[in-house]
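Changelog note: in this version the structure field was regenerated for every chain. One regenerated record is shown below for reference.
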Amino acid sequence: MSTVADSADVSEEAIIGAGTKVWHLAQVRESAQVGENCVIGRGAYIGPGALLGDNCKVQNYALVYEPAVLEAGVFIGPAVVLTNDVFPRAVTPDGGLKTEDDWDKVGVTIREGAAIGARAVCIAPVTIGAWATVAAGAVVTKNVPDFALVAGVPARRVGWVGKAGHPLQHEGGEWVCPRTGARYVEQDGILAEG
Protein backbone atom coordinates (compact mmCIF):
# COMPACT_ATOMS: atom_id res chain seq x y z
CA MET A 1 0.00 0.00 0.00
CA SER A 2 1.26 3.48 -0.86
CA THR A 3 0.93 6.66 1.22
CA VAL A 4 -0.27 9.87 -0.44
CA ALA A 5 -0.52 13.14 1.49
CA ASP A 6 -3.92 14.84 1.39
CA SER A 7 -2.45 17.90 -0.32
CA ALA A 8 -0.70 15.87 -3.05
CA ASP A 9 -2.22 15.81 -6.54
CA VAL A 10 -1.96 12.29 -7.93
CA SER A 11 -3.80 11.46 -11.14
CA GLU A 12 -6.14 8.51 -11.06
CA GLU A 13 -4.34 7.36 -14.22
CA ALA A 14 -0.93 7.28 -12.50
CA ILE A 15 0.46 4.01 -11.19
CA ILE A 16 1.98 4.23 -7.70
CA GLY A 17 3.86 1.19 -6.38
CA ALA A 18 3.42 -0.41 -2.97
CA GLY A 19 5.32 1.27 -0.16
CA THR A 20 5.77 4.52 -2.07
CA LYS A 21 5.23 7.81 -0.24
CA VAL A 22 4.03 10.96 -2.02
CA TRP A 23 4.41 14.01 0.20
CA HIS A 24 2.64 17.37 0.51
CA LEU A 25 1.98 19.43 -2.61
CA ALA A 26 3.64 16.89 -4.92
CA GLN A 27 2.03 16.29 -8.30
CA VAL A 28 2.11 12.98 -10.16
CA ARG A 29 0.51 13.34 -13.59
CA GLU A 30 -1.53 10.97 -15.73
CA SER A 31 0.18 7.85 -17.06
CA ALA A 32 3.21 8.34 -14.81
CA GLN A 33 4.49 5.11 -13.31
CA VAL A 34 6.24 5.22 -9.93
CA GLY A 35 7.78 1.97 -8.66
CA GLU A 36 7.67 0.40 -5.22
CA ASN A 37 9.22 1.98 -2.11
CA CYS A 38 9.83 5.37 -3.72
CA VAL A 39 9.74 8.77 -2.03
CA ILE A 40 8.29 11.75 -3.88
CA GLY A 41 9.12 14.86 -1.85
CA ARG A 42 7.17 18.01 -1.06
CA GLY A 43 6.29 20.01 -4.16
CA ALA A 44 7.97 17.57 -6.57
CA TYR A 45 6.52 17.20 -10.06
CA ILE A 46 6.37 13.92 -12.00
CA GLY A 47 5.22 14.52 -15.59
CA PRO A 48 2.75 12.51 -17.68
CA GLY A 49 4.24 9.20 -18.74
CA ALA A 50 7.44 9.55 -16.68
CA LEU A 51 8.76 6.19 -15.52
CA LEU A 52 10.40 5.67 -12.11
CA GLY A 53 11.80 2.31 -11.01
CA ASP A 54 11.71 0.88 -7.51
CA ASN A 55 13.48 2.59 -4.58
CA CYS A 56 13.84 6.01 -6.21
CA LYS A 57 13.94 9.23 -4.19
CA VAL A 58 12.79 12.49 -5.75
CA GLN A 59 13.47 15.26 -3.26
CA ASN A 60 11.51 18.46 -2.59
CA TYR A 61 10.62 20.68 -5.55
CA ALA A 62 12.39 18.54 -8.16
CA LEU A 63 10.86 18.63 -11.64
CA VAL A 64 10.85 15.35 -13.58
CA TYR A 65 9.41 16.23 -16.97
CA GLU A 66 8.17 13.52 -19.29
CA PRO A 67 9.36 11.35 -20.96
CA ALA A 68 12.02 10.91 -18.26
CA VAL A 69 13.05 7.38 -17.30
CA LEU A 70 14.60 6.73 -13.89
CA GLU A 71 15.82 3.20 -13.29
CA ALA A 72 15.84 1.55 -9.85
CA GLY A 73 17.59 3.29 -6.97
CA VAL A 74 17.95 6.73 -8.55
CA PHE A 75 18.34 9.78 -6.29
CA ILE A 76 17.08 13.16 -7.48
CA GLY A 77 18.14 16.00 -5.17
CA PRO A 78 16.11 19.06 -4.17
CA ALA A 79 15.11 21.42 -7.00
CA VAL A 80 16.69 19.29 -9.75
CA VAL A 81 15.25 19.86 -13.22
CA LEU A 82 15.09 17.19 -15.93
CA THR A 83 14.15 19.09 -19.10
CA ASN A 84 12.24 17.78 -22.12
CA ASP A 85 12.40 20.35 -24.93
CA VAL A 86 15.45 20.85 -27.17
CA PHE A 87 14.18 24.12 -28.69
CA PRO A 88 11.85 25.69 -26.10
CA ARG A 89 9.45 28.39 -27.22
CA ALA A 90 6.08 29.52 -25.87
CA VAL A 91 4.86 30.42 -29.36
CA THR A 92 5.12 29.10 -32.90
CA PRO A 93 7.00 31.10 -35.59
CA ASP A 94 3.70 32.77 -36.56
CA GLY A 95 3.16 33.94 -32.96
CA GLY A 96 0.46 31.45 -31.96
CA LEU A 97 0.63 29.72 -28.59
CA LYS A 98 2.38 26.36 -28.91
CA THR A 99 0.30 23.27 -28.15
CA GLU A 100 1.23 19.64 -27.47
CA ASP A 101 1.20 19.06 -31.25
CA ASP A 102 3.85 21.73 -31.88
CA TRP A 103 6.82 20.02 -30.25
CA ASP A 104 8.47 16.66 -29.75
CA LYS A 105 9.29 15.83 -26.17
CA VAL A 106 12.70 14.30 -25.48
CA GLY A 107 13.68 12.83 -22.16
CA VAL A 108 16.43 12.34 -19.66
CA THR A 109 17.33 8.74 -18.85
CA ILE A 110 19.00 8.01 -15.52
CA ARG A 111 20.45 4.55 -15.06
CA GLU A 112 20.41 2.40 -11.93
CA GLY A 113 21.78 3.86 -8.71
CA ALA A 114 22.78 7.25 -10.14
CA ALA A 115 22.47 10.43 -8.05
CA ILE A 116 21.71 13.96 -9.20
CA GLY A 117 22.72 16.70 -6.74
CA ALA A 118 20.59 19.63 -5.60
CA ARG A 119 19.65 22.24 -8.23
CA ALA A 120 21.40 20.37 -11.04
CA VAL A 121 19.83 20.65 -14.48
CA CYS A 122 19.93 17.81 -17.02
CA ILE A 123 19.29 19.08 -20.56
CA ALA A 124 17.43 16.44 -22.59
CA PRO A 125 18.19 14.29 -24.39
CA VAL A 126 20.95 12.91 -22.15
CA THR A 127 21.64 9.65 -20.35
CA ILE A 128 23.22 9.57 -16.90
CA GLY A 129 25.11 6.29 -16.48
CA ALA A 130 24.60 3.73 -13.74
CA TRP A 131 25.97 4.75 -10.32
CA ALA A 132 27.18 8.10 -11.68
CA THR A 133 26.98 11.26 -9.56
CA VAL A 134 26.09 14.72 -10.85
CA ALA A 135 27.32 17.40 -8.45
CA ALA A 136 24.96 20.00 -7.02
CA GLY A 137 24.39 22.92 -9.39
CA ALA A 138 25.86 21.18 -12.44
CA VAL A 139 24.35 21.59 -15.90
CA VAL A 140 24.52 18.31 -17.83
CA THR A 141 24.52 18.74 -21.61
CA LYS A 142 26.19 15.44 -22.66
CA ASN A 143 25.82 11.79 -21.70
CA VAL A 144 27.54 10.81 -18.45
CA PRO A 145 29.38 7.45 -18.26
CA ASP A 146 28.71 4.82 -15.60
CA PHE A 147 30.43 5.63 -12.27
CA ALA A 148 31.45 9.14 -13.42
CA LEU A 149 31.53 12.11 -11.07
CA VAL A 150 30.63 15.24 -13.05
CA ALA A 151 30.52 18.87 -11.94
CA GLY A 152 30.39 22.37 -13.38
CA VAL A 153 28.64 24.35 -16.09
CA PRO A 154 28.70 22.60 -18.45
CA ALA A 155 29.30 19.42 -16.46
CA ARG A 156 32.61 17.63 -17.00
CA ARG A 157 33.99 14.46 -15.49
CA VAL A 158 36.12 15.33 -12.46
CA GLY A 159 36.55 11.81 -11.08
CA TRP A 160 34.97 8.43 -10.53
CA VAL A 161 32.61 7.20 -7.80
CA GLY A 162 31.72 3.72 -6.62
CA LYS A 163 28.34 2.27 -5.73
CA ALA A 164 28.66 3.75 -2.20
CA GLY A 165 28.88 7.23 -3.76
CA HIS A 166 32.38 8.00 -2.47
CA PRO A 167 35.06 9.29 -4.86
CA LEU A 168 37.38 6.46 -5.88
CA GLN A 169 41.12 6.49 -5.20
CA HIS A 170 43.66 5.42 -7.81
CA GLU A 171 45.86 2.59 -6.51
CA GLY A 172 48.20 0.45 -8.58
CA GLY A 173 46.34 0.76 -11.88
CA GLU A 174 42.90 0.27 -10.31
CA TRP A 175 40.31 2.54 -8.75
CA VAL A 176 39.34 1.63 -5.18
CA CYS A 177 36.37 2.67 -3.06
CA PRO A 178 37.66 3.96 0.30
CA ARG A 179 34.41 2.90 1.98
CA THR A 180 33.80 -0.61 0.66
CA GLY A 181 37.15 -1.64 -0.81
CA ALA A 182 35.43 -2.45 -4.12
CA ARG A 183 37.80 -2.32 -7.08
CA TYR A 184 37.19 -0.85 -10.52
CA VAL A 185 39.16 -0.89 -13.75
CA GLU A 186 39.31 1.99 -16.25
CA GLN A 187 39.81 1.29 -19.94
CA ASP A 188 39.42 3.85 -22.72
CA GLY A 189 37.55 6.29 -20.48
CA ILE A 190 35.08 3.66 -19.25
CA LEU A 191 35.03 2.36 -15.68
CA ALA A 192 33.83 -1.14 -14.81
CA GLU A 193 33.76 -3.23 -11.68
CA GLY A 194 36.97 -5.27 -11.40
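Spot check on this record: Residues 26 and 43 are 4 Å apart (CA to CA). The mean pLDDT is 97.
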